[in-house]
Write the structure tokens for this entry.
Amino acid sequence: MTRPFYMTLGVISLLLGLIGVVLPLLPTTPFVLLAAYCFSKSSQRFYHMLISNKLFGPIIRDWERDGVIPLKVKMVSTTMMVLMISYPVLFKDLAWWIDAIMIGTASIGLVYVWSRPSLPKADIGSSIDTKG
């Protein structure tokens, strides 16, 4: 029962992540990371295909090894979050509590994204050595 559940969730997550590549309202990275986790529990073949992928592989490997979110991904996600909540908060006549929920949710997301390292531990050490 567990393997089919993880496989199904992995496929759905990967599809949502792929849609998120072209649809700015849908985040790509969290869905791809979730797919990798699900495939690691259900299908080593799909898991290895995903971590070997030229686009997603490095992001997944950095996340699994060091919990890294690359600076470029942080900047894009910040821009998208701010843009996506700015329009309704500024230009739509919504109840104050809906605005507060959107701003609070985005703030929590931004704090988490920016609390993660931007470089793997090995890269941080080498960049300090070359500057010192």
